[in-house]
UniProtKB/TrEMBL annotation:
PANTHER family: MAJOR FACILITATOR SUPERFAMILY (MFS) PROFILE DOMAIN-CONTAINING PROTEIN (PTHR23542:SF1), PTHR23542. Residues 398-419 are annotated as: Disordered. Keywords: Membrane, Transmembrane, Transmembrane helix. Pfam families: MFS_1. The chain crosses the membrane at residues 17-39, 45-67, 79-98, 172-192, 213-234, 246-266, 278-294, 300-323, 335-358, 364-390. Residues 404-419 have a biased composition (Basic and acidic residues). This is MFS transporter. It comes from the Bacteria.
Length: 419
């Protein structure tokens, strides 16, 4: 199973790009918990901490596609590194000034979220210029999805380590310094410096002029809602079954399931259209959420959380391939950034919806919401099957392979050439 992943990591520059991207994204991945801990240590309320975290999230959702479009227009080094530095400086200002005055605190957090560099979309744009075969690119997408699960598990642990060794301010400073160093490692690499987006048609909608991409984003909004709602339902369950420790086990189980599912999914090549495959994966995801409504004892509930996460990473990895196939020429980084933004917004909406649902119907109804959201995502994919069946030719794979000056001549492959 691991052979395909080892082959990817042995490719020149691959490990550096993956590691640099993950480190560069740490400030973004840990922002919510780091902000909450800092605000509480500074004497602020949980409401203020939540509000600041929400401002960061909204600003980040706005900034990702905008910066992604700038990357497509001007290249990675000229956008990614300045954005990382600005985001870190803004968070540094917040760390030293604290929450007083409040408008300045909100402004600093908003600027930090807005300028968080789109390293995630940038890495996916780079894979085709680093790897030699289309199958390897697809495996790299699966490995990317797995690495995200690891990062979102390790990130909060790193925050708590920094807090225990130093304090909450140091955690913010260290994580943002690591973010700049990670971005720097990526943008000074030869693939990043050599990468150029394919020529693009001038259009104010950019990547959003692709009907297939819009369909995918609509479906992934509801997958984000499912993931966001399950975190709130898990809190409600944990309150009656052991508290924070049980909540941690449930979230760890969800991540472990995603890690296992992504590992198996990326270890083999799949026949057939990725659009059709995504419909199957989303259906399985919705079905695996349903047993959570049984709310059994803690041990069984943790096992069910593992099962519920199995198809999440495969869904994300498959979506990366579909973005590749449907992104208009010259908009690949922006297109991947839109997927990130949509998923993040969906998770925020899910968190907001789950609260009233749990309040009105209890924990069982809270766990029912992820399955309903997954079913709606499947309905969106089924309803838009026509536009998803017609991928745009000349997407990221073809565009990126054309712009690597160090690449040996080989048969070209296009993102629209294979099912």
């Amino acid at each position: 199973m691991a052979t395909g992943y080892l082959e990817i990591l042995r490719a020149r520059h691959a490990l550096r790009l993956l590691a640099g991207t993950l480190v560069g994204r740490l400030p973004n991945a840990t922002a919510a918990i780091a902000l909450v801990l800092f605000v509480r240590a500074d004497g602020g309320t949980y409401s203020l901490a939540g509000a600041l975290a929400a401002v960061y999230g909204v600003a980040n959702a706005v900034g990702q596609p905008v910066l992604g479009r700038l990357v497509d227009l001007y290249g990675q080094p000229r956008v990614q590194l300045p954005a990382a530095v600005l985001a870190a400086l803004a968070m540094t200002v917040f760390a030293f000034r604290g929450t007083d005055p409040l408008p300045a605190a909100y402004a600093a957090v908003a600027v930090s979220g807005l300028f968080a560099p789109p390293l995630e979309g940038g890495l996916r744009a780079l894979w085709p210029s680093v790897l030699r075969r289309e199958e390897q690119v697809h495996t790299a997408y699966a490995m990317d999805a797995i690495a995200q699960e690891v990062m979102f598990t390790v990130g909060p642990l790193l925050v708590t380590v920094c807090v225990s060794v130093w304090d909450e301010r140091a955690a913010l400073l260290v994580l943002n310094l690591l973010g700049v160093l990670g971005a720097l490692s990526v943008v000074v690499s030869p693939p990043s410096r050599a990468w150029r987006s394919a020529p693009r048609e001038a259009h104010w909608l950019g990547a959003l002029r692709s009907p297939g991409l819009l369909a995918l984003l609509a479906a992934f909004l509801f997958i984000g809602i499912a993931l966001g709602s399950i975190t709130v339902a898990a809190v409600s369950y944990a309150d009656g079954h052991g508290g924070d420790a049980v909540y941690g086990w449930l979230m760890a189980g969800l991540g472990l399931g995603a890690l296992a599912g992504g590992s198996v999914y990326g270890a083999r090549q799949w026949a057939g259209s990725p659009e059709r495959r995504l419909r199957v994966l989303v259906a399985l995801l919705a079905v695996c959420y349903l047993p959570l409504t049984l709310t059994p004892g803690t041990v069984w509930m943790v096992l069910l959380s593992v099962v519920s996460g199995v198809f999440l990473a495969p869904c994300i990895a498959c979506a990366f391939i579909i973005v590749d196939r449907h992104a208009p020429r010259g908009t690949v980084t922006e297109a991947f950034s839109w997927l990130v933004t949509t998923f993040t917004v969906g998770a925020s909406v899910g968190t907001g919806l789950a609260g009233p649902v749990v309040q009105a119907g209890g924990t069982v109804w809270g766990f029912g919401l992820p399955s309903v959201a997954g079913a709606v995502s499947l309905l969106v994919l089924l309803a838009t099957g026509g536009v998803l069946a017609a991928p745009v030719r000349g997407g990221v794979v073809a565009a990126s392979s054309e712009n690597d000056p160090n690449r040996a001549p080989e048969p070209r492959f296009s993102s629209g050439d294979r099912a």
